[in-house]
Specification:
- The protein is 62% helix and 8% strand.
């Protein structure tokens, strides 16, 4: 007979003597002083982080070292007109002759002249300078004035706010509206800030109501909310400090709110639940806090590390858009964990048994009486579900996995793009201007590509050959530059004075390419590739929206395997440290990935293809922001690990106590099923509140991650995990001897000393048995706990 694998030795002695017990005793000794310190720090964080929204930026999608980034920087410095970020749409509808009316022409030329005289504004070009067809609507009702506001994003926003009142609105015979990247970015920041306040106003009170329903006690329900507020205020202060040293995306604040509330609720639920169990078992408040920190506190700390590591993987990307979420995510996770392990235990010591005060459930009418209706054991429904799943483990494992994979199939048709004005509500002026340009103007003025030519062999002849070759490419309207205007491989005319000025004193120059399609369409991306592949005798660097997107996609794809590798390796390591198992870390990575399939499928089906766009109130663009799925994966994976850690740690504790794998899985589901589901529902609601944003990317982030959280808690943790654990049996906990010894030295355990004698699988009861002494002891312990809880509540009454 083959020898059975041996379980790793227990870790109970280390858990009892570790820092958790000492930390609990330290908190119990000075709870009020500790709360005073925390309150002071929170007040300071509120003051420091109060103006963080004004310091955040809405860009950050470019790769710093990419060709397009280099070309954009050089063109901005030498030829500001080549990279306009502000558009004035001048409407002359109703005037005879439209934009060519003499009065309209005079007014428009005056607008352009005044705009060019504004400080930090340069490169002003208007339709009325040279009657450029690309700057005039097909029906002659509107025409454009383009300009470049110099400086970084903060400086551009300041200039835009200063000049807007002098140009926007009715100006004599014309109506002026502002558009362009600067106006779109400014509008995005305003809408995001307004939406964030509204989301918080929705999420906070409703979350409190849900917590009251979960805890019963209004006092206990307030505790997770207080932890969440501490996490949000603390993270805002961290972001405010970071803005002094680096760029931080405005979108990071939404993640701060969502994770601050969500993780605080998760951690506080786990801590308060365990504390109340210890009180019900007869412990005094100080001892209950010490035991809670030694057990649940270790799991909270471990869970926070797994989420933080998942979010830290975004540091491998070069775009500050993604790095900003790492800053915000790591800060909010660690602060939420610190508040849960410092401020919350101190509050529990001060409250003592009053944590159950103000039980609002007494105000609700009850159906029947205890005599007429037998009392149902808490968690009995979850236990029954676990037994059903384990009896039909192959069916549930295969069936659930197939359904999850099927839900993710739409993602195979994903098309990546970049955010534009269509992220904004359709009524936003900047969106209306850009939409009208797309519909009414020839070519794609917003998608113009500028090709920077550098080197000793840049000259009129080489530029002419290059312009002729580019103009022959598919989907090119025309090419203009120092060599003249080209279309379909032919020179149409000589260079105008403006085009002749596209040559620098050092011999460098640039040509402008006007594509036919959308700025970031598939054809525009192909055009960038084709231009870069043309053999030329000088160095050519392409700038423009399509070039930026092409470089972003390449740079993201290049770094993505590293990010996934960081997540996978650290998850495997951390789950091993918690469990000492060789198989459980692999299961955690695979099952977590499966839990995200529905999210990715929904992202494509809803936001790319436009299903439910009318109901959800957004404009589909036919593609997905390139960096957004990466962000959603890192956030959702970390949150899924959060719930996985809660479940596995409780199963492991009961397995070490009784030695029966199947009974331990059932017990873990029974004890954590309701808790995880409640936490997921509350976090899901917070994400949905964030998803009410009028900015499409924020809506996608909130609704997508909310769906992933609910799928993970209600499908993966309830069906797939118990089925897989039943199939792997006792091998779930096996590890080779060297790894067992390593785990014994450096591992993490939630087991309480004196309650988990070491058990060797080779002498334990078979995992397939329906009942074992260990399982019976667990049931008896649960019944005793419930009896104590009932007695405790009766005494309070």
């Amino acid at each position: 007979m083959a020898a059975r694998p041996a379980q790793q030795p227990p870790t109970t002695g280390r858990a009892d003597d570790g820092g958790g017990g000492r930390w609990g005793r330290a908190i119990a000794a000075r709870p009020r002083l500790l709360l005073l310190v925390v309150l002071t720090l929170t007040a300071c964080a509120a003051v420091l982080g109060g103006g963080v929204a004004d310091r955040l930026s809405s860009g950050g999608s470019q790769i710093p070292g990419a060709e397009s980034t280099y070309a954009t920087r050089v063109l901005e410095q030498r030829w500001p007109a080549s990279q306009p970020n502000l558009l004035l749409m001048v409407s002359a509808r109703g005037a005879t002759g439209g934009v060519d009316n003499p009065q309209v022409t005079s007014q428009a030329q005056d607008l352009a002249r005044r705009l060019g005289a504004e400080q930090a504004v340069g490169g002003v070009v208007s339709y009325w300078d040279g009657r450029e067809p690309a700057l005039r609507a097909r029906d002659g009702g509107e025409a454009l004035i383009t300009a470049r506001i110099a400086g970084d994003e903060d400086a551009v926003d300041a200039v835009l706010e200063r000049v807007r009142p002098s140009y926007e609105g009715r100006r004599g015979p014309v109506e002026v509206r502002l558009g362009g990247p600067a106006a779109v970015r400014n509008a995005s920041q305003e809408v995001i800030a307004e939406d964030l306040v509204r989301a918080e106003m929705i999420a906070l009170p409703v979350t409190l109501v849900l917590l009251v329903f979960v805890f019963g006690s209004a006092v206990a329900a307030l505790l997770p909310l207080l932890v969440g507020i501490m996490a949000i205020l603390g993270t805002n202060a961290v972001l405010r400090v970071l803005t002094e040293f680096t760029d931080v995306s405005v979108y990071a604040q939404n993640l701060t709110t969502a994770l601050g509330l969500g993780l605080a609720i998760d951690y506080a639920l786990f801590i308060v639940r365990r504390y109340r169990e210890e009180l019900a078992a007869g412990a005094d408040p100080r001892a209950a806090v010490a035991t809670t920190l030694r057990t649940a506190g270790r799991t909270v700390l471990f869970s926070a590390l797994t989420v933080a590591v998942s979010l830290a993987s975004m540091f491998v990307f070069e775009q500050y858009f993604l790095r900003s979420f790492a800053y915000a995510g790591i800060a909010v996770v660690l602060i939420a964990a610190a508040a849960s392990l410092i401020a919350l235990p101190a509050l529990l010591v001060v409250l003592g048994r009053r944590v159950d005060a103000l039980d609002v459930r007494r105000l609700l009418p009850r159906r029947g009486t205890s005599e007429s209706k037998p009392k149902r054991e808490p968690g009995a429904g979850w236990a029954a579900l676990a037994r059903l799943v384990m009896r039909r483990a192959p069916l549930f494992a295969v069936g659930t996995a197939v359904v999850l994979v099927a839900l993710g199939l739409p993602f195979k048709d994903v098309r990546f793009g970049t955010a534009d004005d269509r992220q904004l509500p359709s009524s936003t002026p900047a969106h209306l201007v850009q939409q009208q340009i797309r519909e009414e103007f020839p070519g794609s003025p917003g998608g113009v590509l500028a090709v920077l030519a550098q080197g000793p062999r840049v000259g009129e002849a080489s530029l002419a050959d290059f312009s002729r070759s580019v103009s022959q490419l598919p989907d090119v309207v025309r090419v203009s530059g120092p060599a003249g205007l080209y279309a379909d491989g032919e020179r149409v005319r000589a260079a105008t004075p403006v085009e002749a000025a596209q040559t620098g004193t050092d011999g460098s120059a640039y040509v402008t390419v006007l594509p036919k399609g959308e700025a970031t369409s598939a054809s525009s991306l192909e055009l960038v590739t084709d231009i870069r592949s043309i053999p030329i005798p000088f160095k050519a660097s392409v700038a423009g929206a399509a070039a930026v997107l092409s470089d972003t996609q390449h740079g993201t794809a290049e770094r993505l395997p590293w990010a996934l590798g960081v997540i996978a390796v650290t998850t495997l390591l951390l789950v091993f440290l918690l469990t000492g198992s060789l198989l459980l870390p692999v299961q955690a990575v695979v099952l977590n990935a499966l839990s995200l399939t529905a999210m990715f499928g929904a992202v494509v089906w809803v936001f790319q293809e436009g299903h439910l766009s009318g109901l959800l109130g957004f404009t589909p663009t036919g593609d997905i922001e390139t960096a957004l799925p990466v962000l959603m994966f890192c956030v959702a994976f970390g949150l899924s690990m959060d719930y996985g850690v809660f479940l596995v740690s409780r199963i492991q504790e009961e397995y070490e106590r009784g030695g029966d794998h199947r009974a331990a899985v059932e017990f873990g589901i029974r004890r954590t099923g309701g808790l995880i589901t409640a936490a997921a529902v509350i976090l899901g609601f917070v994400m949905v509140a964030i998803g009410t944003s009028r900015v499409t990317n924020i809506k996608m982030l909130g609704l997508g991650v909310g769906l992933a959280v609910l799928m993970d808690a209600m499908v993966v943790r309830s069906l797939l995990v118990p089925a897989v654990l039943r199939l792997t049996g006792r091998a779930t906990w096996w590890a080779p001897g060297p790894l067992r010894r390593l785990h014994r030295r450096i591992g993490i355990s939630e087991t309480v000393a004196g309650t988990a004698p070491g058990i060797d699988i080779s002498t334990a009861h078979d995992a397939n048995q329906e009942s074992t002494p260990g399982a019976e002891a667990l049931v008896e312990a649960q019944e005793a706990d419930e009896s104590l809880i009932g007695s405790h509540r009766a005494e309070r009454t």
